[in-house]
Specification:
This protein is an alpha/beta fold and 386 residues long. It has eleven helices and 19 strands. The strands form five sheets. A six-stranded mixed β-sheet has the order 6-5-4-1-15-16. Helix 1 runs parallel beside helix 2 and helix 5 crosses helix 6.
Length: 386
Amino acid sequence: MKILHTSDWHLGRTLHGYSLIEDQSYMLEQMINYIQAEQIELLIIAGDIYDKALPNEEAVGLFNAFISKIIGEMALPTVIIAGNHDSNTRLHFGSELFASKHLYIIGECEKGYYKVTLTTDEQVDLYLIPYMEPAKVREIAGDEMIKRHDEAMRYLTGEILKEKGAVPTILVVHAFVAGGDLSDSERRLCAVGTAEMVGADCFAPFTYTALGHLHKPQQVGANHIRYSGSLLKYSVSEANQKKGMVLLNVQNGLLEQVEEVTLPPKRDLKVIQGPLESLIKIAAELPEESRQDYVYAKVEGKPVEDVVGVLRQVYPFILGAEFVVANAKSKEAVERQSDFEAQKKKSLTELFIDFMGYVGEVDLNEEEITYMNQVIQEIEEGKNEA
């Protein structure tokens, strides 16, 4: 069975003010062509179909056109789960009717997961776990000890293992798995340290886990636990990433193939660097198609007024610009960047400790730190349940 795994389309998203609908439509057309050429037998979309819970008309129209093509014309079995950007209730609407056409869109489910069995030359069991807060899983399980995403996922995968058969089993999950590389364009699932993270070992017993949420294509913990990555580059931090899908092949009850498939975008996202005069000269020598890419400029030299406006004359889709030290960062700049990256990784409790030490020269003891963790966790759970 040839299977295609994709996720994080974020239909309706903008990039520094530019609508990406045209770019997203181009990518989905390529995906359809690939599905037809490779004779794909199952499509998996692991969450974040839309960029917002209330998507705009263009985003809904694009998704509708895609689904009409692959289901109405191609009759391709497709499974979809809600991500943290989607509205679970809205995405789930009509799911029972769609299932009769082998379109399984799962936003809500009584047990916290939904089982689909597909049979071609191979039989495959799929367990679909839409994104949900730990409070929802705590309610399903009737277990007040479930407070973090990891605890919620361990409950759900534990229940699935109780009914798991001998046939190949694929999980479809939208979560932040510990060890995964982040980009700037992902929305955090919560704000308390590592409370959002799920251990990769939750998924070890299954044939393959199709993950959504992180935008960089990557394996986490093992080759059979993977993020397909986002449909497009949604931030400057993703400029060096290649976007696409993951191709799987299940044969004779085994996962025989896992391959990243790259799709070229209508407009690439690039970071360029050099003196302003050089950047303008290089642009003039580029073919028209290359100058239509999204560009972020790191300009070497003295600051120039309205540098973005100047560069827009040769790069019409410029995202922004900053002035940097020529050739390489100074030692001081490198240290500042390293400190910035370290600060980004700190939990709220760690940042509060730093703040107290800075403004009051106060060193919190272990009991006070434990109390702070509890307070912050209770606040976050209150937000999630609101």
